Amino acid sequence: MNQNNLKLLQKKFKLYGGLGSVDFNPNFQKSIALVSLNNVESKNALSPKMMAELSEIVDSLENTSHDKNYPLTALILTGNKKTFCSGFDLRMTSSDNKFKGKEFANEMTHLMNDTLRKFSKLSLISIAAIDGWAIGGGAELITACDFRCLSKNAKIKFVHSEMGVTTDYLTIGWGGSGRLISILNQKEALKILVSGKTLTANDCLQNGLADVVSEESSYGSLTDTVSINPVIKKSLDFLNDFIFVDKENSIMRSSSSIKSFKKIISSFSEEKPFIKFNEIERDAFVSLWGENDQLMALERKIKIKNAGENKKY
Ligand SMILES: CC[C@@H](C(=O)O)C(=O)SCCNC(=O)CCNC(=O)[C@H](O)C(C)(C)COP(=O)(O)OP(=O)(O)OC[C@H]1O[C@@H](n2cnc3c(N)ncnc32)[C@H](O)[C@@H]1OP(=O)(O)O
User: Fold this and answer.
1) How much distance in Å is there from the Cα of 288 to the middle of ligand 1?
2) Is the CB of 173 under 6 A from ligand 1?
3) What's the 43 CA to ligand 1 centre distance in angstroms?
4) Does residue 164 sit in the same domain as residue 303?
5) Among 38, 39, 41, 43, which is best to mutate for testing ligand 1, by the most ligand atoms less than 8 A from CB?
6) Which terminal Cβ of the chain has fewer Cβ within 10 Å, N or C?
7) Number of domains in the chain
């Protein structure tokens, strides 16, 4: 979608309105942002207004400024109060018939497809911190993240095949099936999508949809005090292992290297010829070589070598 059409859709969806908000905290933790879905009365369903907000946040994410010592390299996507997200806010359909129409379905799928495609291709490492339900469009959202951390009470359900009233125009509309195939495989994705089975944390750990499980679930509202939200805390631990060489002393890995790897990996897709993929990989390598982060890393290595007995290089 071109940028002008996207801006028009964002504007239109803001006017369509609805309850709730998508909140963005770029300085949640060193180098990590937090995006949270807040529409608690409807289990964090996304209203049109929230879709526009999410789309704008994703657009701004690549350029968000951050503490210069800890450039933004990762983000957590979560839902407020013991639920991740229950998909599209179905209350909209009783407030106005246009939300039951094909025109709206078409706009929604364009906006959400664009948002989640961009989200999954961000140069930031993303993790969905999932407590309670991720259902319908909510299940599709978690497929846009690189990783998923589930509480033991999490439930994932691609409800689409069950939605008798709406399946003729609201099929799997936010790009989740393609992404589910790339996370799992065609056979597993087919089973999950067609059966609409509710997947527990254990199911997801077994089939590979979950990367980590928190034995505790969250106790209450989401706050910046991560210690009271175990799913967020577990997600942070998971991310910090990627980001820091030495967590105790807050020594980061090269942020440009992390972001570059994320860009390279997310640019790979089966439709793209390998040659194109190799080109992207090559360009990234050349652009990093000789830059500050690499030179500093080399210097660190040389110091270690000179200090130690191992004189291989
Ligand atoms: C491409 C997107 C599109 C798609 O194709 O799938 C969609 O996303 S359509 C929406 C798909 N989502 C659903 O079908 C989920 C519907 N909700 C449920 O099945 C259940 O509510 C739940 C999520 C499994 C939770 O069940 P439970 O814990 O028993 O809570 P309640 O059912 O009592 O819910 C509390 C409260 O929240 C309201 N609610 C829940 N989901 C939605 C929603 N998607 N839109 C609007 N409101 C929602 C529910 O009605 C309750 O409200 P009150 O009765 O006023 O308390």
Assistant:
1) 46
2) yes
3) 6
4) no
5) 43
6) C
7) 2
Task: Tell me, yes or no, whether 157 and 68 share the same domain.
Answer: yes
Q: Does residue 48's CB lie within 6 angstroms of at least one atom of ligand 1?
A: no
Q: Which token pair is 106?
A: 């078409």
Bigger pLDDT: 217 or 287? 287
Q: How far is the CA of 260 from the centre of ligand 1 (A)?
A: 38
CATH number for 80: 3.90.226.10
Question: Does residue 240 sit in the same domain as residue 278?
Answer: no
153 and 289 assigned to the same domain: no
In a domain, 190, yes or no: yes
Cα 308 to averaged position of ligand 1 atoms, centre (Å)? 61
193 and 272 together in one domain: no
Does the beta carbon of 170 sit less than 6 angstroms from any atom of ligand 1?
yes
Residue nearest to atom 15 of ligand 1 (CA): 86
- Cα separation, 79 vs 217, in Å, equals 12
CB distance 284 to 263 below 8 Å: yes
Cβ(151)–Cβ(172) below 8 Å: no
Q: How far apart are CA 29 and CA 20, in angstroms?
A: 24
Query: 170 falls in which pLDDT band (50, 70, 90)?
Result: very low
More confident residue, 231 or 161: 231
Q: Is residue 62 part of a domain?
A: yes
Residues 69 and 142 in one domain: yes
Q: Ligand 1: which residue has its CA nearest to atom 27?
A: 43
21-29 vs 32-38, strand pairing mode: antiparallel
- ipTM of the complex as predicted: 0.98
Range of the domain at 285: 268-307
Decide: 20 in ligand 1 pocket, CB within 6 A: no
Q: Mean pLDDT, the chain, as a whole number?
A: 85
Same domain, 231 and 158: yes
CB 233 less than 6 A from any atom of ligand 1: no
